[in-house]
Amino acid sequence: LEDLQDAFDFCFKVHYQSGEDRNRDPQYARQLQALQAKLQNLDQRRREVLAQMQQLLGRSETLRELLQEELGDWKERQQRSCLGAPTNTNLRQLETWFTGLAQGLFQLRQLLRALSDLQRKVTYERDPLVAETPLLEQRLQEQLMHLLKSAFVVEQQPSTPNPCKRPLVLRTGSKFSARARLLVRLHDRNHHMEAKIHIDRSGPRHEPPAHPRGFRKFNILTSSSKTLLAGDSPQEGLVCDFQYLVGASPRPPGPRGDGSATSSQGPLAVTEELHLITFTLAYGYCGLELELETSTLPFVIISNNNQFSSAWASILWFNMLSSDPKAQHFFSAPPPAPWPCLAEVLSWQFESVAEQGLSQDHLLMMAKKLFGKA
Predict the structure, then answer these.
(1) Which of 31, 109, 166, 227 fits as disulfide partner to 15, beta carbons 3.0 to 4.6 Å?
(2) Are residues 347 and 274 in the same domain?
(3) What are the STAT transcription factor DNA-binding domain coordinates in residue numbering (predicted)?
(4) What is the Cα 110 distance to its own chain's centre?
(5) Read out DSSP for 142-168?
């Protein structure tokens, strides 16, 4: 396109003379015809390139929708894995796909900018670049933003260093860790990408109006910000790994005024309060800057080990039955669990610690214990 445009522009400046009446000059008429042919060829090629752009953006949109389905399946596998289910939660393949699509979109973005530069140098009546390029840029920008926002995920849910403890149950004053990953491995080394974490950044969603005080409030005592960096090996990707976090409730949190984490301000029991950690990331690449955000699965914060069993039961019940990962008031009206669903989760619990799940006879025995002979 650039070569065609330069050739047309050169011929136009050399042969076309505005304001002169040379219609009877046969040589000048031939020059104008050749110039018109070059303009028609340039216009046709511009329209072909724009059509190819439209086609590529349509394909990328279809691919992005497929990646969203794959990502949704991965999140379901991760949720089951937190409950003890044997499943693969490796992100390497998803990262390869997300990065490949992002690279293609950023290349298209550069091509659209090049087309805009060409249009500013040479334009004409009914120039397709004038009408279509801004629409393509807007469509591409939306695709990139949607892709990047979905590519920021929680790779490791909040968990304590003790391997015997379950994830998603934390204790005040004790260390825990969490990790977020950007599946698009494109970053500008000159751009400082800082990730921050917040506990209950927006407060519990769907909070009942009868309980305006909400849940207990917690602070992160250790560093709550890190720079997103590439891992130690090329396979690790762009991660922000918060390995040594400590959470505590501010003083005074409740009516007792002694700073005890057991004094609940909310309508629910301590072991039924569901909290969220939100990661935010200031992302920038090739002139595109936006804030990315992702949240963990809901977790329970306890103040002593006696509350662990009840807290873990809450985690199981929520992840079995909730379709909204941010429904922090789930236990205001918890639904019942069907036995087949509960039986599967109980089998996962045994398999996660004994490397063997429960047989049908085992589950039948447990069902009789719970429901009686009927």
Answers:
(1) 31
(2) no
(3) 157-302
(4) 24
(5) HHHHHHHHHHEEEEEEEE-S-TTSPTT
Q: What is the pLDDT of residues 14-25, one digit of tens each?
A: 766 665 565 666
Phi-psi category of 181—alpha, beta or left, where left has phi over 0 and alpha has psi -120 to 50?
beta
Tokens of 13: 């400046």
Torsion sign across C-alpha atoms 94, 97, 99, 102: negative
Does 257 fall in a domain? no
306 and 365 both lie in a single domain: no
Q: DSSP state, 296? A: P
Determine, yes or no, domain membership for 319: yes
Question: Is the same domain home to 147 and 242?
Answer: yes
Same-domain status, 118 and 23: yes
Instruction: Of 62, 91, 68, give the one whose Cα is nearest residue 147.
Output: 68
The two three-digit tokens of residue 27, written as one number: 């040589």
* Spatial CA neighbour of 152 closest among 303, 280, 259: 280
Contact indicator for 156, 213 with CB cutoff of 8 Å: no
CATH number of the domain encompassing residue 281: 2.60.40.630
Select from 35, 47, 46 the least CA-distant residue to 7: 35
Looking at the fold, whether 281 and 366 belong to one and the same domain comes out as: no
In angstroms, the CA 183 to CA 41 distance is: 42
Domain annotation covers residue 58: yes
For residue range 44-101, list pLDDT tens digits in order: 999 999 999 999 999 999 999 999 999 999 999 999 999 888 899 999 999 999 999 9
Tell me the Cα Rg of the chain: 30
> Would you say residue 259 lies in a domain?
no
How far is it, in rounded angstroms, from Cα 218 to Cα 207? 17
Determine contact, residues 183/95, Cβ cutoff 8 Å. yes
Whether 249 contacts 302, CB under 8 Å: no
Total domains, the chain: 2
Whether 279 and 346 share a structural domain: no
